[in-house]
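Side project, low priority. Logging it here so it doesn't get lost.
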Amino acid sequence: PWGAQLGESPVWHEGENTLYWVDILHPAVHRFDPATGRNETCETGKLVSAVIPVTGGRLLVASQDGVEWLDFASGRLTPFVNPEAGIADNRLNDAKCGPDGAIWVGSMRIDASKPTGALYRINANGASERKEGGIIVSNGLGWSPDGRTFYFVDTVPGLIHAYDCDPATGA
């Protein structure tokens, strides 16, 4: 009902009891309150592909410029880390907070024409570790209930990868 061109990355914010989601083709972050039926829009002025609620009521987003802090009220974005600084033809896509508390984010070539994407794990200090490469369109990050299996989708070839994962360390 809000006219999303490419609505993606829904994530429930426990502290607010709201659902955040993005519209990739109309650069905006949305916040839906199911109790009131109200959907608020935060225009970001740049492509944002995922929202990650973190402690203290703060929000991180995956954007065309890396992982950034978002002030939803003002739309202000503040850089946190860019694991692909210097790769001009790539952008970040899907992202989630893992059971280990780290941010996991995938990347892709802007036009999805080549497998230049990768998967990264970013710790609280902003240090990033490349976990996988050769991805066309990174998507669908998730963990099994016990955190011991990590799932990761490469959309274009239609692959769902399942990795053994240590839920405490992200290894």
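Brief comment: The chain has two domains: 1-80, 82-171.
Revisit when time allows.
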